[in-house]
Automatic annotation (TrEMBL):
<dbReference type="InterPro" id="IPR031318">
    <property type="entry name" value="OPI10"/>
</dbReference>
<dbReference type="GO" id="GO:0061608">
    <property type="term" value="F:nuclear import signal receptor activity"/>
</dbReference>
<feature type="domain" description="Hikeshi-like N-terminal">
    <location>
        <begin position="6"/>
        <end position="45"/>
    </location>
</feature>
<feature type="domain" description="Hikeshi-like N-terminal">
    <location>
        <begin position="48"/>
        <end position="111"/>
    </location>
</feature>
<comment type="similarity">
    <text>Belongs to the OPI10 family.</text>
</comment>
<protein>
    <recommendedName>
        <fullName>Hikeshi-like domain-containing protein</fullName>
    </recommendedName>
</protein>
<dbReference type="InterPro" id="IPR048364">
    <property type="entry name" value="Hikeshi-like_C"/>
</dbReference>
<dbReference type="GO" id="GO:0005829">
    <property type="term" value="C:cytosol"/>
</dbReference>
<dbReference type="InterPro" id="IPR008493">
    <property type="entry name" value="Hikeshi-like_N"/>
</dbReference>
<dbReference type="GO" id="GO:0006606">
    <property type="term" value="P:protein import into nucleus"/>
</dbReference>
<feature type="domain" description="Hikeshi-like C-terminal">
    <location>
        <begin position="125"/>
        <end position="181"/>
    </location>
</feature>
<dbReference type="GO" id="GO:0005634">
    <property type="term" value="C:nucleus"/>
</dbReference>
<dbReference type="Pfam" id="PF21057">
    <property type="entry name" value="Hikeshi-like_C"/>
</dbReference>
<dbReference type="Pfam" id="PF05603">
    <property type="entry name" value="Hikeshi-like_N"/>
</dbReference>
């Protein structure tokens, strides 16, 4: 019924059916997963909403080694299953629900996220820290031919100018929301 594709891995079709409306995929080596995509295989007819026919979910930085405690958490929160080799297997759950149920859950989730998100406009030191971190990550992406950045390398002003233009465009396009997400 569903397929799962983890970036850089083969397509998974080994869905474990729990009941008529619930299923799961096990995703080994979960600590290194950055993106995952779940989609219909077309083997079973399901009525879907056209509001969001597909999506790719970014997981990097969302791993937690404690199990999910309630149904309000994101369906893509990873739950640890420890293997003998100290690797972690995530369990990705799928629930087929009516659009009304999904809308209620999304509004609950969105309100919870708004409450927990840091308010950068009220904390200038946090805002400055996020901006500096963004600049550092951008400048760090310019490495020498060996693939490493030496600690005392001089950064050309043109790189800082490119960062500033890119940073300004992101703020003009969507505000400071991208800084509120910790990565």
């Amino acid at each position: 019924m569903f397929g799962c594709c983890v970036a850089g891995r083969l397509l998974q079709t080994n869905l474990q059916q729990i009941d008529e409306t619930h299923a799961l995929f096990e995703l080994p080596h979960a600590s290194v997963i950055n993106h995952v995509c779940v989609f219909l295989l077309g083997t079973v007819a399901i009525r879907l909403s056209n509001e969001k026919p597909s999506a790719v979910f970014r997981l990097r930085g969302t791993f937690t080694s404690t199990p999910a405690s309630d149904h309000t958490q994101n369906a893509f929160t990873t739950t640890a299953v420890h293997n003998s080799d100290a690797e972690v297997t995530a369990v990705l759950g799928i629930s087929i629900e009516t659009i009304e149920q999904v809308q209620i859950q999304m509004s609950t989730l969105n309100s919870a996220l708004v409450k927990s998100a840091p308010n950068l406009t009220k904390d200038p030191s946090l805002l400055a820290s996020r901006i500096i971190n963004h600049l550092f990550n951008y400048v760090s992406s310019f490495v020498d031919a060996s693939g490493t950045m030496t600690p005392n390398v001089m950064v050309p002003m043109s790189i800082i100018t490119k960062w500033y233009e890119s940073f300004s465009n992101k703020i003009k396009a969507g505000g400071i929301g991208f800084l509120e997400r910790s990565e």
